[in-house]
């Protein structure tokens, strides 16, 4: 089992969700996050004052999948989250982590059956 964490652009959420559903990955946790990196942020003017916005809004997806679903899920995320024209800075990142165990609270099932 693996945990896939993907940081993506907010406008790409629905496309990623649909792409994952096509490869039978339908369980995920979604959260609003903020961060900065090579994208650097931007400047805004509010009530006559100029503010530098360095933390940009992103979406964090967390998926736990069985080993055979890892590569299809990663490919689905990449294809649906990448900007047109080969991608741009700020399209996001994917992290893959090992999972030792999973337990379904309702039934007590463990391992891949609990996913």
Could you name the key traits of this structure?
alpha+beta; Alpha-Beta Plaits; 2 helices; 36% strand
Can you give a write-up of this model?
The protein is α+β, with helices and mostly antiparallel strands and 115 residues long. It has one domain (2-114): 2-Layer Sandwich (Alpha-Beta Plaits), CATH 3.30.70. Helix content is 19%, strand content 36%. It contains 2 helices and 6 strands. The chain has helices spanning 13-22, 70-81, and strands spanning 2-8, 29-35, 42-46, 49-53, 56-65, 92-98. α1 (13-22) packs antiparallel against α2 (70-81). The longest helix has 12 residues, at 70-81. It is elongated.
Strand order of the largest sheet: 2-5-1-6
- The helix tally amounts to 2
The percent range for strand residues is: 35-45%
Instruction: State the separation between the terminal residues, measured CA to CA.
Output: 9 Å
In terms of per-residue confidence, which ranges show pLDDT below 50 for 5 or more consecutive residues?
A: none
> Helix share of residues?
10-25%
